[in-house]
Amino acid sequence: MRYSHTHKAETRRRIVDEAARRFRRDGVAGTGLVPLMKALGMTHGGFYAHFPSKEALVDASLEAAADAVNQRWQDPLSPSRLRDFLASYLSPHHRDHAGEGCPLPSLCAELGLRGQPSPVSDALVRRMAARLQDCTFSAGGADAEGNQGLVLLSALVGALTLSRAVADPALSERILGAVHAAVQAPPAQG
After folding, report:
1. Whether the model pTM is above 0.85
2. Measured between alpha carbons, how far is residue 189 from residues 41, 62, 91, 130, 141 in Å?
3. Does residue 190 have a pLDDT over 70?
């Protein structure tokens, strides 16, 4: 059977999309290649026609996430768009649907435990922090290194991670609400 010249690229994209969803939902270690490929109606052996290893798939998934961040945030976030973004990021929906959201809360600890964090995850963190820095602190007071963007990103990722990690629903809501209130407040003037 002959496939179109775009078939391989489309198949690769389907694998990356499904893997990214599963990595965010189940973690890298919890995502097996056999069930992943079976969900796509493909064989495990077919995976290796697209990727040399699972680690290469993790990197491709993170690259896709970084591209999605760039597309979503092409234009600077106005104050109202920033408020909407923060409300969405720190929402119960984002907490409860890990497979659809930001990969960092789900994957950060696992990527660090791999023994060799990915330069692709570095790029994703840098892009997200820079966009937050640009839209949040452009009106003066920003430090030269862009640390305020890193602080905001860390607060968002940490809040979402903690809200998913606790069993008490009230505490989970409290974590999201407390961080949302804190990041809405203007930075302290020193």
Report:
1. no
2. 57, 36, 28, 21, 8
3. no
168 located within any domain? yes
Q: In terms of C-beta density within 10 A (0-12 exposed, 13-18 middle, 19 or more buried), how is residue 88 classed? A: exposed
Furthest-apart CA pair in the chain: how many Å? 69
Q: How far apart are CA 42 and CA 138, in angstroms?
A: 48
38 in a structural domain: no
Mean pLDDT of all residues belonging to the chain: 84
pLDDT at 20 over 80: yes
In-domain check, residue 15? no
pLDDT digits (tens, 9 = 90+) for 47-75: 999 999 998 999 898 888 777 766 776 66
Report if residue 61 sits inside a domain: yes
Domain of 138 in residue numbering reads as 54-184
Structure tokens at 21: 């969803």
Quickly tell me which residue has 């305020």 as its tokens: 148
Residue whose C-alpha is closest to residue 118's, from 61, 184, 38: 61
